[in-house]
Specification:
The complex is a heterodimer of chains A (about 325) and B (about 675). Chain A starts with about 20 loop residues before the first strand and ends with a helix. By secondary structure, chain A is of the alpha+beta class. A five-stranded antiparallel beta sheet of chain A has the order 2-11-10-6-7. A four-stranded antiparallel beta sheet of chain A has the order 1-3-5-8, with no helix packed on it. A three-stranded mixed beta sheet of chain A has the order 4-12-9. Chain A contains six helices and 17 strands. Chain B has about 675 residues and is an alpha+beta fold. In chain B, about 50% of the residues lie in helices and about 10% in strands. Chain B has 24 helices and 19 strands. In chain B, strands 7-10-6-2-15-14 form a six-stranded antiparallel beta sheet, with no helix packed on it. In chain B, strands 3-13-16-17 form a four-stranded antiparallel beta sheet. The chains are: A alpha+beta (about 325), B alpha+beta (about 675).
Chain lengths: ~325, ~675
């Protein structure tokens, strides 16, 4: 296939406009050209035609024309494999810088015929091969490398297909507004800052009965199960966890200024590593960086919120 | 190429086995038609590939060397005499087999598949019969199915579905292919010569005759030629088909004279028959026209013995348009012919000579009377006409006339001519065919080797050359009814005449005629679709008046129409969703909403959509919308969809006209749907 580059034509070409995030590949948005194998096939047909003319052999004529007709029918089928497809590109789950973000793309096939061998690709990513059965949905995870921290906007998704015969390639460039958050890559090696409470060490590890029982609070995702107050929870429909006064007082502050000086990204990396380590401790921690403060808390959602702030720093 | 960088689905073992099977079968057919050794090498390579499957150690360089070496050996073994064409084809066959051993990626698959298509075409150069046509269709279908399968992303062996897909592609291709076939111009000659041999010829008349030659030929069932008379056939007694004329004899064997090709005197008197003759390949140059040929195509030559010859050996089926005059006058006898016509071998015995001279003295030298005496000799002396006469020794004529008195047409003819020459009458033997059977389906007269025959001609000063068939004197039914060879053989050689009347034989004959007429229709309609026939076809379609440019324009428009027709056919097949009436109704509901700017989201179900929009619809429509969503879900996913529900859904959708409330008026509460019987809430 002649490699086509779309450097600055992106703005010039009118691509499918998402409606409520959903894109429909209409007739005008699907392009089609022969592949390299398609051209080879054409050369084969020419050779057969010459043989037929030279030997006045009508069966060779018939074979040539039947093959040409098959290629013609395949042209339409390849084009139709894309036209009318409905797709939606959703935001990717957050990843760390240097990893690969996976954008879920949902494809909807309303035809009574299978849409087979669809290939999805972001500009820098690897191509993903998938298919959608008749009148169903299929979701493909399309990768896009997340090289730098921040908000990843891949913008251009190309969907193409060469089904059924591989002689033609139909493609459609799709604008998507999906984003993915990229956390800073954690930089290990710097120990966590000490908790600011003057209580005994290891106070973060609450032992039943050892600390003052401070009350019940509703269960948050990430709380260890031995903290759940089963009796109370059984009586109501919600889960409750026990809170201990010891942990209420012991708090770690992950502070921008406490991270060793260096370039910005490294500092953010150190902070990210701290957040990750703190979240496995069980203690509560807070994050303080220029422009954002996250009050102390525990749990996975709190961790993600901190990482969010680190990712968005400076935007 | 960006293809190489992109992810390719690996081919499955099913695809590989199918491809190897195709190459193997093509190799077998190639072996049958051309060289068994070379076909065998390719077949062996294909089999090896299947057996080795994915065990890399069995493939790779050693296998290539082995099969490559075998291929080279067999190619040189076959020799290079046949010309560049067959050589190129053989090399192609071996290469296809070798490439099959080397298939690792999808790209290799494509190479082998394209080679296979070309391979198939080379088979057509040798054989264009109906079975080959059907075989070709099968090969094309399977190769297309393999292409679909290696392009598919679905897991597992989906060969059955890809065959269905392949059949659909093939059917969609047919209108375009048929139109191109009818319209694409045919040249009358080749662009350049590659020298590929066609089918080798088979049995037939030779230019010598010995006792036993004809009755051996008669045992073969093969068709020699077919004839279509323009105005109906002549009577059976006139169905003599003239082949080699034999003059010289050594007492046992008869041979031809080299004859001058000067056109003999064209005697225009006599009954003329115009006909078309379709001649099977014979590897010889004889064209057996009806006795005697009068008007012939320019490429054939008629010589002074009235033999009709083609310029080259007939190696494939040919059609000739001829006209003959039966019972005409042919009075020319040159001195050289008189001398040949009286040539006698050294071993003519006393009693043979005396017999002939006795007739001459009785008749006073009249050839007609001498002929009559000879014929009554055959009739009266209990001669037998048999398919399996006893073997004759060194003097066949003498033994036949006086000892055995049993023979086939060649014995009678050679004995008769020897007697005539001994009596001083110039005479010669004519070999050819007598009779033929009409195929009731195609109306063609079919002449097989069973009709092979030998007769004589004598020269009289009054009448010129006269045809004399001594067989007619002994077995007149042979002329009228034809020979039932199978029946005769079953009876130990005593000939049976006429068509065999047994039950199974007539069924077999009906079947043969049917097959024969189908094969002829295929030949004239497809294989022999020449530029002349193309012109006739276009004339029939009424395009003759338009002239060359007009025709070209009409044809181009026609092709465009067919292209568009094919495209719309492919589009149509996706629109018929007749198996889902509820779905169609729901689509209509959706399109009504779409006109108001409301669209179903990709991950939204019908009930979600309804919940989302119900606030914004005016009350009556809101209730309808809720009911529509509920009914649709029940019909589509429920266990027992009821017809009444479908009808109600239809009514509701037809009457549904959404009116969107402006945002300010959007209702706060969710209106309750109109419910009958079942509880509300999400499924």
């Amino acid at each position: 296939m002649i490699a086509l580059r779309w450097p600055d034509w992106q703005r010039w070409l009118r691509h499918a406009k998402p409606v409520h995030g959903r894109i429909r590949l209409g007739m005008r948005q699907v392009y089609i050209l022969p592949t390299f194998r398609g051209w080879l096939f054409g050369a084969l047909l020419v050779a057969l035609l010459i043989a037929a003319i030279n030997y006045s052999n009508n069966l060779i004529f018939a074979l040539t024309f039947v093959l040409a007709g098959i290629a013609n029918a395949a042209l339409l089928q390849t084009w139709r494999n894309l036209a009318g497809l409905e797709m939606e590109v959703r935001d990717a789950e957050p990843v760390f810088a240097g990893q690969i973000a996976q954008f879920p793309v949902t494809l909807r096939n309303a035809r009574p015929v299978v849409r087979d061998a669809l290939r999805l690709k972001f500009a820098n990513g690897v191509e993903v091969l998938t298919y959608v059965d008749t009148k169903t949905l299929a979701t493909a995870q399309v990768p896009c490398p997340a090289l730098t921290r921040g908000t990843l906007r891949p913008r251009r998704l190309t969907i193409n297909t060469r089904y059924p015969l591989g002689l033609f390639r139909a493609w459609s460039p799709v604008n998507s507004e999906a984003v993915g958050l990229v956390y800073p890559a954690p930089v290990e090696g710097v120990p966590l800052p000490a908790p600011s409470s003057s209580q005994e060490l290891g106070g973060a590890q609450g032992r039943d009965g050892d600390d003052d029982f401070a009350g019940l609070r509703s269960y948050r995702t990430g709380d260890p199960l031995h903290r759940v107050s089963w009796k109370t929870s059984a009586r109501t429909e919600d889960l409750y966890a026990k809170e201990f006064s010891a942990e209420a007082a012991s708090v770690r502050w992950l502070d921008w200024d406490q991270a060793p000086a260096g370039d910005q990204e490294t500092r953010l990396g150190i902070l990210a590593a701290w957040v990750l380590n703190a979240s496995t401790d069980g203690s509560s921690w807070g994050l303080r960086i220029p422009g954002a403060t996250v009050n102390p808390d525990t749990g996975i959602r709190h961790r993600d919120r901190c990482l969010d702030e680190l990712a968005r720093y400076g935007e | 190429m960006s293809d190489a960088r992109q992810q390719e689905k690996a081919f499955g073992s099913g695809d590989l086995i199918a491809l190897a099977a195709i190459i193997g079968v093509l190799a077998l057919v190639q072996g049958a038609l051309d060289s068994l050794a070379i076909g065998g090498v390719a077949f062996g390579a294909a089999t090896w590939r299947v057996l080795a499957l994915n065990r890399r150690r069995l493939l790779g360089l050693p296998a290539l060397i082995v099969f490559g070496g075998l291929g080279a050996a067999t190619i040189s073994m076959e020799g290079f005499d046949a010309g560049y064409g067959p050589l190129a084809v053989r090399v192609l066959v071996v290469l296809a087999g070798l490439k099959l051993l080397e298939t690792r990626t999808i790209r290799d698959f494509y190479v082998v598949i394209f080679l296979a298509f070309f391979f198939l075409a080379t088979l057509f150069l040798r054989d264009q019969t109906i079975p080959m046509g059907l075989f070709a269709i099968g090969v094309v279908l399977v190769l297309t199915a393999i292409l679909v399968s290696i392009n598919s992303a679905r897991p597992g062996n989906i060969f059955r579905q890809t065959i269905g897909h392949s059949i659909r592609l093939f059917l969609l291709a047919l209108p375009f292919a048929a139109a191109m076939f009818a319209v694409f111009p045919r040249l009358s000659g080749p662009l350049w010569h590659f020298g590929i041999d066609m089918q080798a010829g088979r049995t037939g008349l030779s230019d010598t005759m010995e006792p036993g030659a004809i009755n051996n030929l008669v045992l073969s069932d093969e068709i020699a030629f077919r004839v279509i008379f323009e105005d109906g056939p002549p009577p059976p007694e006139a169905l003599y088909w003239r082949g080699p004329v034999l003059w010289q004899t050594d007492g046992r064997r008869w041979t031809r004279n080299p004859a001058r090709t000067s056109r003999p005197d064209a005697e225009a008197t006599g009954k003329t028959f115009d006909y078309q003759m379709i001649v099977e390949p014979s590897a010889k140059r004889w064209v057996l026209a009806l006795d005697v040929a009068n008007t012939v195509p320019s490429q054939l030559t008629l010589n002074e013995d009235y033999e009709l010859l083609a310029p080259r050996d007939l190696n494939k089926r040919e059609t000739f348009k001829l006209s003959s005059i039966t019972d005409g006058d042919h009075r020319i006898l040159s001195d050289r012919q008189r001398e040949s016509g009286l040539q006698l071998p050294d071993n003519v015995t006393e009693r043979v000579r005396n017999l002939a001279l006795g007739w001459r003295d009785e008749s006073g030298g009249s050839p007609e009377k001498i002929m009559a005496s000879a014929l009554s000799y055959f009739r009266d002396r209990s001669f037998t006409y048999t398919l399996m006469p006893p073997t004759l020794g060194s003097n066949p004529v003498d033994e036949f006339l006086f000892d055995t008195r049993e023979g086939f047409c060649e014995h009678y003819a050679s004995a008769f001519v020897t007697l005539m020459r001994s009596a001083g009458v110039p005479a010669r033997i004519v070999t050819g065919y007598l009779g033929g059977e009409t195929n009731p389906h195609s109306g063609q007269l079919v002449v097989t080797q069973a009709e092979a025959h030998a007769w004589a001609e004598i020269w009289s000063p009054d009448q010129g050359w006269i045809r004399v068939d001594p067989t007619a004197a002994v077995a007149p039914e042979r002329v009228r009814l034809g020979l039932d060879v199978a029946g005769a053989v079953a009876q130990g050689g005593i000939p049976l005449f006429g068509l065999s009347s047994g039950f199974w034989q007539s069924i077999a004959r009906q079947a043969r005629w049917l097959i024969d007429s189908v094969e002829m229709a295929w030949y004239t309609g497809v294989v022999n679709f020449s530029d002349k026939r193309q012109r006739d076809l276009l004339d029939e379609l009424g395009l003759a008046q338009l002239g060359r440019y007009g025709t070209a324009v009409v044809v181009a428009i026609g092709m465009l129409v067919i292209l568009v027709f094919t495209w719309s056919l492919s589009l149509l097949e996706t629109r018929s969703a007749s198996t889902d009436p509820a779905g169609r109704l729901y689509q209509r509901y959706r399109s009504k909403l779409r006109r108001k700017g409301i669209e179903l989201r990709v991950n939204e179900g019908p009930v979600d959509l309804d919940h989302r929009i119900r606030r914004r619809l005016a009350p009556p429509e809101a209730a309808t919308s809720a009911r529509i969503a509920r009914l649709y879900v029940q019909l589509r996913y429920g266990r027992h969809p009821r017809k009444a529900d479908l009808e109600e859904l239809g009514r509701l959708v037809s009457s549904f006209t959404p009116r969107l409330l402006p945002d300010a008026e959007a209702r706060e509460d969710l209106p309750k749907e109109v419910v009958r019987g079942k509880g509300a809430g999400n499924l």
